[in-house]
Amino acid sequence: MKKTALPSLPPLPSLSPALPALLCLSLLGIVTPAQAELKKVFENIRGTIVYVDTSTLSTNGDKRRVTEIQNYRNPGPRGMMSMKLLKEYDCKNETAQIIHYTMYKGPMAEGDMIGRVNTPGDVQKLTQNPGGTGGWRFACGL
Asked: What is the DSSP letter of 41?
């Protein structure tokens, strides 16, 4: 049986000498990846707190989209303690619409995921949902 030579592999790229040090620091929690920039925009007497991730704000004319986290004091259906939502606010018409959301068993959109809804909800006037006014004020700069 005749042996054929295997093709040679390209050389491995050289790694920065700082890479091992950065890896060690990240494992120790000294260097962390970019994280959400959360700002509390609403809290009610039942213990529901709404945060916006300021790093996710996007603009399209009078409309603004932002990711929000709703955190609950007591578990809801199926043990839900929080939700992460993409909301769209119409600054001119003072409306809000949930584009999609994910439900979690843990606080702050962590822990086991319960479910996800990708179908946009109805457009609601802010007077129908006072909890949305905090996100609207942030997104629309008021």
From this structure: E
pLDDT in tens, 34-74: 467 999 999 999 999 999 999 999 999 999 999 999 999 99
The Cα–Cα gap between 85 and 103 comes to 9
Q: How far apart are CA 123 and CA 97, in angstroms?
A: 5
The answer to whether the Cα torsion of 25, 39, 100, 56 is positive or negative is negative
Rounded to an integer, what is the distance from CA 134 to the centroid of its chain?
17
DSSP state of 124: E
pLDDT in tens, 7-39: 454 444 444 444 444 444 444 444 434 467 999
Is the CATH number 3.40.50.2300 carried by domain 36-139?
Answer: no
CA triplet 104, 107, 110: central angle to 5 degrees?
55
Is 52:135 a contact under the CB 8 Å cutoff? yes
